[in-house]
């Protein structure tokens, strides 16, 4: 998968000067997100895999990794708990991976408007920066793994991803463009145009391969050697 990582990660450079920053001694990294991040702290989850790779690569840096994902959460939910779950942990780096539920919940008319999505991201990043921490902002990934544009929410996910890209640029935050990376990987590996089963188990939540793929993307963004390296 290392070759796929290299190809995918060429898509991920946002705010290049920030992207060159590496980890430092006693960094505290908080992963803020929804159920994908909540599951990411399981033994084979992407947060755990990232933490293990960091500990292996930099055993003397005493870096702390904290998962702060809650199932069903959207940007407004993350805003409400930002102080409790993020700022009070005294982070130096916050990775924000949010947006799936903001889009998906339009199924029952409970999604997040584009205006609130953007304003919420800007508000959270401002608060995080104010305590001296930097942000790695992710675009949302997939709701369905088809590569021909027929997943129900493809267009909306692209629109919300554009918002995240704009926010990253506006706030001078590092961008981790998961949407582009996932779609590039699927176009290469989902030869049967399947709805799920390549990187997700249910069209959204990551399977073992998806967690490994995401962990490698995060590690690349932090300039940490993959555990496979």
Characteristic key phrases:
229 residues, Rossmann fold, 46% helix, 10 helices, alpha/beta, 5-stranded parallel sheet, 5 strands, disordered N terminus
- In the CATH hierarchy, the architecture is 3-Layer(aba) Sandwich
Amount of helix: 40-55%
Using only C-alpha atoms, the radius of gyration works out to: 16 Å
Uncertain runs are 1-5, 7-20
Order of helices and strands: HHEHHEHEHHEHEHH
Estimated structural class: alpha/beta
User: CATH topology, which one?
Assistant: Rossmann fold
Arithmetic mean of pLDDT: 92
Described by strand count, sense and barrel closure, the largest sheet is: 5 strands, parallel
Shape: globular
CATH class: Alpha Beta
* Total beta strands: 5
Percentage of residues in DSSP E strands: 5-15%
CATH superfamily: SGNH hydrolase
Explained architecture:
It is a single chain. With 229 residues, the chain is α/β, with parallel strands linked by helices. It has a single domain (2-221), classed as SGNH hydrolase (Rossmann fold), CATH 3.40.50.1110. It has helices at residues 2-9, 16-19, 35-39, 46-57, 75-85, 100-104, 114-130, 154-171, 178-189, 208-221; strands at residues 28-33, 64-69, 93-97, 134-138, 174-176. Helix 8 (154-171) links the parallel strand 4 and strand 5. Helix 4 (46-57) packs across helix 10, helix 5 packs parallel to helix 7 (114-130) and helix 7 (114-130) runs parallel beside helix 8. The protein is globular and about 45 Å long. Mean pLDDT is 92; it is low at 1-5 and 7-20.
């Amino acid at each position: 998968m290392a070759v796929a990582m290299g190809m995918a990660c060429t898509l991920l450079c946002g705010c290049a000067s920030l992207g060159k920053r590496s980890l430092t001694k006693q960094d505290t990294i908080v992963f803020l997100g929804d159920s994908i991040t909540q599951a990411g702290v399981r033994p084979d989850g992407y947060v755990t895999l990232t933490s293990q790779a960091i500990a292996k690569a930099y055993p003397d840096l005493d870096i702390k990794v904290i998962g702060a994902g809650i199932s069903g959460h959207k940007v407004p939910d993350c805003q409400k708990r930002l102080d409790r779950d993020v700022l009070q942990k005294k982070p130096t780096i916050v990775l924000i991976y949010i947006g799936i539920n903001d889009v998906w919940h339009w199924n029952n008319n409970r999604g997040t408007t584009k205006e609130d999505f953007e304003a919420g991201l800007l508000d959270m990043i401002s608060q995080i920066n104010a305590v001296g921490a930097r942000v790695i902002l992710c675009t949302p990934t997939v709701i369905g793994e088809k590569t021909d544009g027929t997943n129900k929410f493809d267009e909306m996910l692209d629109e919300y991803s554009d918002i995240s890209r704009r926010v990253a640029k506006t706030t001078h935050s590092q961008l981790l463009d998961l949407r582009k990376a996932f779609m590039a990987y699927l176009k290469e590996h989902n030869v049967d145009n399947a709805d799920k089963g390549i990187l997700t188990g249910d069209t959204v939540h990551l399977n073992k391969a998806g967690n490994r793929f995401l962990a490698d993307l995060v590690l690349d963004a932090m300039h940490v050697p993959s555990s496979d390296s």
